[in-house]
TrEMBL record:
Protein family (similarity comment): Belongs to the class-V pyridoxal-phosphate-dependent aminotransferase family. Csd subfamily.
Entry keyword set: Pyridoxal phosphate, Transferase
Assigned EC number: 2.8.1.7
UniProt-recorded name of the protein: Cysteine desulfurase
Function (record text): Catalyzes the removal of elemental sulfur and selenium atoms from L-cysteine, L-cystine, L-selenocysteine, and L-selenocystine to produce L-alanine.
Cofactor requirement: pyridoxal 5'-phosphate
Organism from which the protein derives: Snuella lapsa
Domain Aminotransferase class V residues, every copy: 24-392
Catalysed reactions, as listed in the record: (sulfur carrier)-H + L-cysteine = (sulfur carrier)-SH + L-alanine
Amino acid sequence: MFKAEDIRKDFPILKREVNGKPLVYFDNAATSQTPQQVIDTIVDYYSNYNANIHRGVHTLSQEATDKYEQARLKIQAHFNAKHAHEIILTSGTTHSINIVASGFTSLLKAGDEIIVSALEHHSNIVPWQMLCERTGAILKVIPMNQDGELLMETYDNLLSKKTKLVFVNHISNALGTINPIEYIIEKAHQVGAAVLIDGAQACPHIKIDVQELDVDFYVASAHKMCGPTGVGMLYGKEALLKILPPYQGGGEMIAEVTFEKTTYADLPHKFEAGTPNICGGIAFGAAIDYMNTIGIGTIASYENELLEYATKKLLEIEGLKIYGTSKRKTSVISFNLEGIHPYDVGSILDKLGIAVRTGHHCAQPIMNFYNIPGTVRASIAFYNTKNEIDILVEGVIKAKHMLL
Ligand code: PMP
């Protein structure tokens, strides 16, 4: 039986105080906290087998290589990729997106079209704009409605034989909307376009099966799912990764180097130039093990319970407006108090030991759509409790009284 109170014991940071108050951590969409099991993996790596991988004959190097490649297998199994070499270990979602955006430079021509959505994080907008600048391709945007949902009819009309790529996040980090990616993928494939799904916010909350989705590229960051920062993954279908040129040149990614010509290594190494974040990759595997011992299904249903409870309680506060009111949403509550700047609310909450994020959440087009400078964002993880939501609600009421 899942009990958040028991799970919390795995997270040493949750025992600390902030400004003399017990920490209440609701900034999980920015980064999740790290359980002792993952911390132990990091300590074990640096204490016992820290070595560079793939090239060494010595024992430490072989141990590190084995563990790193085992982590790749865990990631492969977790996302249900067909082959381990379809998992490229990167420094995170942003890096993964840039590998694909950079690779498509030689595959697009002027007048080709690429589609993003109005709900994207800047890291799923800017690399495509840069790609358009390099190639003369045209960027089209799937618009959203007031509930924070993408307009699928307009999407249907945007698609044509000119569409080469479609990029959408699975779950919006700013609003929590779960996008209809199954439909988006199917429709894009009908016109022969490839699809990249940004799963940075989805991977901690829902089960992802890249084969069932039939998605071409799927990207994620370990630090959103109880792993360390600076590591993430790019899943790509083998056939596409083979066509895509390498992103960076360097060691590890070559088959043979002469001054006349260099040939590239096979997948996944073609995209893994230089010494990777070895410890981070191994710890990513440990984070996946940890989340799977609880079970993504259990996590999702508990978080939904918390989301419903928090939404109901916060809406009881007069003058509080929630942005992102789709029925298909998870884990994020973005809100404002009428007449009060989100930054001021966040600062008072911090004094009370409550960590939320304020601002545009790297999604300025969404803020422009609602014509607001930003929101206060409380984002939920499975180690949060109803008691913490009560503390948050009390804090917001206090902030409102102090600031009005
Ligand atoms: N996309 C989404 C939806 C995100 O939430 C984030 C992180 N906030 C990113 C991309 C970028 O992830 P990272 O900073 O780990 O590269």
